[in-house]
Amino acid sequence: MLKKIILCCFACLxxxxxxxxxxxxxxxxxxxxxISIAVQKFELGNGVKSADAATIxxxxxxxxxxxxxxxxxxxxxxxxxxxxxxxPNFKSWQAIKTQVLVQxxxxxxxxxxxxxxxxxxxxxxxxxxxxxxxxxxxxSVRRLAHIMADAIYERLTGEIGYFDTQIVFIxxxxxxxxxxxxxxxxxxxxxGMRYLSDADTFVMSPHFSPNMQSIVFLSYYNxxxxxxxxxxxxxxxxxxxxxxxxxxxPRFSPDGTKVAISLxxxxxxxxxxxxxxxxxxxxxxxxxxxxxxxxxxPDGKKMAFNSDRSGRQQIHVLDLESGExxxxxxxxxxxxTPAWSPDGQFIAFTKIADDTFYVGIMDPRGRNEKxxxxxxxxxxxxxxxxxxxxxxxxxxxxxxxxERISHIRSVDITGQNIYDIELPEGVYGLEPTWSPRLP
Length: 439
Fold this sequence. Notes:
single chain; mainly beta; 7-stranded mixed β-sheet; 4-stranded antiparallel β-sheet; 3 helices
C-alpha cells in the first residue's frame, strides 16, 4: 500500500528581478528544448538505506530523461547543496542554466515504512511549485520513484504521468526454429519482468482490464484457440466462455464489464461483445467481410475496428448504440490494429504500404494522419495513460533472413524520442499493452 499526502506549497520572493512566466513544457510541439532539472542527493533519516535513496533518485532521473522533455543536470555541476526547508540560492542555479531543482528527504515512518518528502522549485520563477509526501513499504522503492517522477512530470507538463505503470507482452525466446512464447509483465521501464504463463501453451494478444485486476488473452491451451482471463492477484486462469468457434483479439470495455472479441463462425470473422456479468454474447458486425481488432472509445459509445468490407483492409468506427458503421481511412495501403487513446483525441493504427509497416495516429474521423515510425514489420500500438506516448513492437529483418529480432519500442505523439524498452538477455518482445496507472 502506498499513501500520498499533498503538502502545502509556498512561494518565495525572487531577489533577481521580476517574476518569470509559469514554467511549462509544451509536450505536443516537436523540437522544443528540454527543461534542465537538477535532482539533489536525498537527505536521510536514521534507519534509511542509502542504496534505496540512491535507487529512487536514479529512477526519477531516468524516467524524466526518457521523455525527451527534460535534461538532467550533471551532479558534479551543482553549485550548492540546499537543505530541506532552506531557500536555494537561485542566482547560483541560474548560472548553470538549471530551470528546476528537486529536493528530497527520506525517513522511517512509525510503522517501519519509508516516508519520502520532496520539493520542486522553479529556479527562474524563484518559487516552490510542488511539495508532496509519500509513504510506502521498503520493498516499494521503485514505485516511490515512479510516483515521484509522475508528480514532477504532471506539474511541469500539465499531462497525466505514466511512469507508475506496467506493460504486459509476449516474451519470445529460444532458437528461431523453436521459439517459445510466454505472457510476461514488467514495469514500463523494463524492470522486474516476470512470466505469467508457462512455456507449454502458445499465447497471444494480452490486454489489461481497466481496474488492473485481470488480463484477457488468446490461449491455444489443448490446441484450442480461445480467449482466457488471468486474475493478477491469484494467478487463476479461466476460459472466458464457450462461443462455438475460434475467438481472439480480446479488448475490455472502459467500464470493465464487457469484452469485445473476434469470433470465427462458418468461416466468417465478426466482432462480438461478451458481457462478463450476464454472460450474454452480442454480435456487433455483420456481412461476409472479415472484421477484427476491436478497440473501444474511452466513453464506451463507439468501437474502432479493421475490416476488408470495402475490398481492402481499412479502419471503421461502429456506433454501439445505433449500429451504424463509418469507414474513416482512405489512404494508400492497408490499415489495421486501431487503438483509441485514453483521452479520445486520437486513434493509433498500423499501416502497410509499399512493403513497409508504419505506426501512426489520426483523429477519430480519420483526419490529420501522422506517421510516427516505420520499418520492416511493426504492429500492436498501445497507449500510455495521458495519451502522449505509444508502445509497439518492431521486428527487424536479419541479413540472413532467418534470425529475426523483435523489440518493444516507445514513441511520443510528435514522432520523436523513440527508444527501446530493455528486456533481459535473450528475450524478445511482441504485442505490448500499456496498463492504466497502478492502483
